[in-house]
């Protein structure tokens, strides 16, 4: 099959300043089919290798990412508008995921026997990633999928594709004859739909909006090759309860913790805190504390173009593009129409960067949970509503169908924590977390319930399971005291 030529182009601009980074050739149905065929041929060769060969290439991939860390960090800053501190954490995390996946796929030795489990790979994994984590989240799939013996067709967000292109170049040098195992396709929703619907793509792993996930499920239902369950991470309209069974000192600490997950990545994470459900006795006190925290943050003058500037503690910089800014503005306007009061939220640095979108974080003080709170704004907008009884708080935090990723509570009452743990409908329950609803997995896997997701990723108990078939299961034990030679 000869390589077809793509014809359409896509312009990539930096969220930091609105300047054009690149003009890329976009993929189409023909180039997608070609890359899938290349991946299938590579996967057939890849399957002839024992586990230690796959481990060696993934280890080399991790080392190469680390060697190229500075260049990748700079690219993440330009491409995704993230602060240097966040970009460094993402590159370090991506390299670590490759190694940890290898380590976690092995069982502890028992009676002098090294142990592992092998199941057949699914084949071709279609990977769709979002703009906010252009590297690390992709490795949640790439690492276990490749180690399990699959090939991966990766469609990065059309807003941040430059990081994926750079990672593909690094992988090609390390993988050598197996470089076609990882394919990059560039394009928007239509290309993503083609990837999902392609009959030679055996599994889908995708991160994005609830609407995107619904579209994927509908497409898979029409597809013949749909036996392998998808992994869908679809955001989270995450709610946190603040109880009045709490000292003033613990309340201040709780607000400081929530600030981390409210402001992280400028409100553009699936784990951001978006709704605060506050006991009415401390409602006004909580709002005052939040106001003061935001005033202090703004007074520190750390909301700046991240290119060449120091990072702030929250990873707060620009919104990804004008569409994100317009959604932010629209949500604030609607909150006022529904009886709310908006605090902060002005646009910043517009004179310096007319095509970049920096904003103050904003609070929406609401009389009750209303329609606008049922949507995930995906911006630094925090809704605050009062509650009377604890049963009411549980109902409020669980009501939106897209509130299925993380739920949290701040209280010093043990009975409340036990009831919340039992009744929280999200995939992650955090009790007095030092970082709000951020970083919820804690080594237990990552995934949401309801509209927030399907399946689990980062499953340390068996990281390869989601990317293998259930029709055969080999349990392999090797005497580790016997010296082996290649």
Low-pLDDT residue intervals, each spanning 5 or more residues: none
> How far apart lie the N and C ends?
36 Å
**What percent strand?**
15-25%
Q: How many H/I helical runs?
A: 13
Structural class by SSE content: alpha/beta
Q: How many domains make up the 3D coordinates?
A: 2
Q: How would a crystallographer describe the biggest sheet?
A: 7 strands, mixed
How many E-type strands?
20
CATH class value of the largest domain:
Alpha Beta
Helical amount among residues, as a percent range? Answer: 25-40%
* Gross geometry: globular
- Report mean pLDDT, rounded to a whole number: 95
Radius of gyration: 23 Å
List the strand order in the largest sheet: 12-15-16-11-10-17-18
Annotation keywords:
2 domains; 6-stranded mixed sheet; 7-stranded mixed sheet; 38% helix; 19% strand; 13 helices; Aldehyde Dehydrogenase, Chain A, domain 1; globular; alpha/beta
Structure in a nutshell:
By secondary structure, this protein is of the alpha/beta class.
What would you say this structure looks like, in words?
By secondary structure, the chain is α/β, with parallel strands linked by helices. It has 2 domains: 9-230 and 455-479, Aldehyde Dehydrogenase, Chain A, domain 1 (3-Layer(aba) Sandwich); 238-431, Aldehyde Dehydrogenase, Chain A, domain 2. 38% of the residues lie in helices and 19% in strands. The strands form 5 sheets. Strands 12-15-16-11-10-17-18 form a 7-stranded mixed sheet, sandwiched between helices. α2 runs antiparallel to α4. The longest helix has 21 residues, at 84-104. The mean pLDDT is 95.
